[in-house]
Amino acid sequence: MWPPAKASDMTRADAPVTLPVVLTVAGSDSGGGAGIQADLKTIEACGGFGTSAITSVTAQNTTGVQGQHLLPIEEIEAQIEAVTGDFDVAAVKTGMLATSEVIDLVVDHAADLPNLVVDPVMVAASGDRLLAAEAEDAYESLIAEATVVTPNADEAAVLTGRDVDDAAAAEQAGRDLVEMGADSALVKGGHVPGDAVVDTLVTEDGVTTFRHDRIDTEATHGSGCTLSSAIATQLAHGDDLPTAVGSSVDLLASAVRYNVDIGEGPGAVHHLVQARNDAAHHPTSEAVERVVSALVEADVSGLVPERGMTVAGATPYAETPDAVAAVEGRIARTMDGVRPNRGVRFGASTTVARALLTAREHDPSLRFAIDCRLTDAVEDALSSLDGTSASYDPGKRPDGVAADATAQWGVDRAFGASDDPPVAVVGREGLGTDEHAMLFGATVDAIVSRVKTVHEAVDDGA
């Protein structure tokens, strides 16, 4: 019989999926930003199935650690054995182990702990100590079992006796840890002074560095847990070590930039930032389509450059052009008005996408950008907008900036020189049909309203 019976009238076949199992052996953070809670969120966000062995229960929030209670060693062991006895564990990470007895326990089970990522947690981000002083020496035996050990500069100094205050010292500390028996060492650069954060991965085969801009925030609670959990999960997926580390460092950079504003303290990193960003792709594409439909209906022909108009929309956590959706082939003028040449696709824009991402460095709330034809009339019409306009001189582009990056450089310069984030940015030299102004907005309504306002002002002045 067709159509088939409704789902409520039949038994449906299950559709199980297979996920790599990752085990975290660490402490619990009642505040949810670090520890087991951060590990499990990150593992799931990276496509793994998270399991756990809790070593210690902490009373903790964004302001600090108010108390901690170590579980009996036999209970910790029972958790490890329960997981490894039933699940095909593909990777393991350790966090807060608290005492030498717990460290020794993990070492004893190391043969059953593949792709072992050791995060040598000693002190919380708040400054509270999470490792007994007598346990520091015990880490040497665990490091010898590690696929990768991931200390920050302070932890690396304790483990190696070497001050880690620059890139050269980080590399040498990594070599020391490899000599202690680790397959590799990732010495994190968050505590090392400098405008950029440089993480240094050392293996027997060589050194790889991962660099990203430092984020101006104190909301780094859970950063070490998030990074080590992400690395473990990527290893569980079968990634090679440099790939696993590189993608995890990128994830953490976004998680720190788009941190979660919670509690009375600095807040926590956004463990699910990548998953949330992926989930936002379809709504963002639909939002760009709504903008295009509104501009077609309004017939903004007078604002469309000869080469076409680009309408671009970024996901809420966009960091690269492939997270910016745009009309492929731009919007073109026709005898009957304006129309998009093709559909909306992520990565379809370069110039406007990069300009939008640059604007978001100054105002992360901005989601949309449109390049318009620039004439004297259009420039005059910008004064009718609900915000300020800013300008830059393309002729002052530094020699080190490529010609195709002029708009990106100009937007950065214009936003940086403005007291309030501008809603429009133009280059003042060479006004003509080949030049353009860029309009920005945080919402569909905002960007459409601004384009219509300029278009109506130009028509009224014609």
Automatic annotation (TrEMBL):
Pfam families xref list: Phos_pyr_kin, ThiN
Keywords on record: ATP-binding, Kinase, Nucleotide-binding, Transferase
Domain of life: Archaea
InterPro entries to which the protein is assigned, alphabetical: Aldolase_II/adducin_N_sf (IPR036409), HMP/HMP-P_kinase_dom (IPR004399), PM/HMP-P_kinase-1 (IPR013749), Ribokinase-like (IPR029056), ThiN (IPR019293)
Annotated GO MF terms: ATP binding; hydroxymethylpyrimidine kinase activity; phosphomethylpyrimidine kinase activity
Domain Thiamine-phosphate synthase ThiN: 288-452
Protein's GO biological process: thiamine biosynthetic process
Any GO CC annotation of this UniProt entry: cytosol
Gene3D superfamilies given in the database record: 3.40.1190.20, Class II aldolase/adducin N-terminal domain
Pyridoxamine kinase/Phosphomethylpyrimidine kinase domain sequence ranges: 29-270
Signal peptide coordinates: none
Protein name: Bifunctional hydroxymethylpyrimidine kinase/phosphomethylpyrimidine kinase
Annotated source species: Haloarcula taiwanensis
